[in-house]
Amino acid sequence: MLTVADIMTPNATTIASGATVADAIELMQQRQIRSLLVEHRSQDMPFGMVTERDIVYTVVTRGHDPKKVLVQDIMHQPCISLAPDLTIQEASQVLSDISVQRAPVVQDGRLVGVISVTDIFMRGMSVPALSR
């Protein structure tokens, strides 16, 4: 049975909570990604998450200057984290229950990757070949 570790994206891209939204936009564009994990300030704090939707709906739509808004002001925290040994079905259920699209994968307090519903859809679902 597939686990989170089998399909997660390793080496998740992170950003400091004190970075500006302009920094986040630039990093997301460079890496061609739709979200960033926000580094926690200490080991006992959870990770945060900032997405392109957060930026568009909270900054752009309201006319705020991305160079003056900090990531910590718009991020989601705490964000749920998943263990790498969870099955894909268990991970899907957790993401569904809390209505989120992605989550950091954490093992022993250390970030090991990120998993999204797109990962589950694209890599976690096996469909048998259709016979003709």
UniProtKB/TrEMBL annotation:
For this protein's source organism, the top of the classification is:
Bacteria, Bacillati, Cyanobacteriota, Cyanophyceae, Leptolyngbyales
The segment(s) forming the CBS domain are: 8-66, 75-130
What does the UniProt keyword field contain? CBS domain
Per its record, how is this protein called by name? CBS domain-containing protein
PANTHER family linked: CBS DOMAIN-CONTAINING PROTEIN, CBS DOMAIN-CONTAINING PROTEIN CBSX3, MITOCHONDRIAL
Q: Which InterPro entries match?
A: CBS_dom, CBS_dom_sf, Diverse_CBS-Domain
Q: Which SUPFAM superfamilies match?
A: CBS-domain pair
Question: What domain of life does the native source organism fall in?
Answer: Bacteria
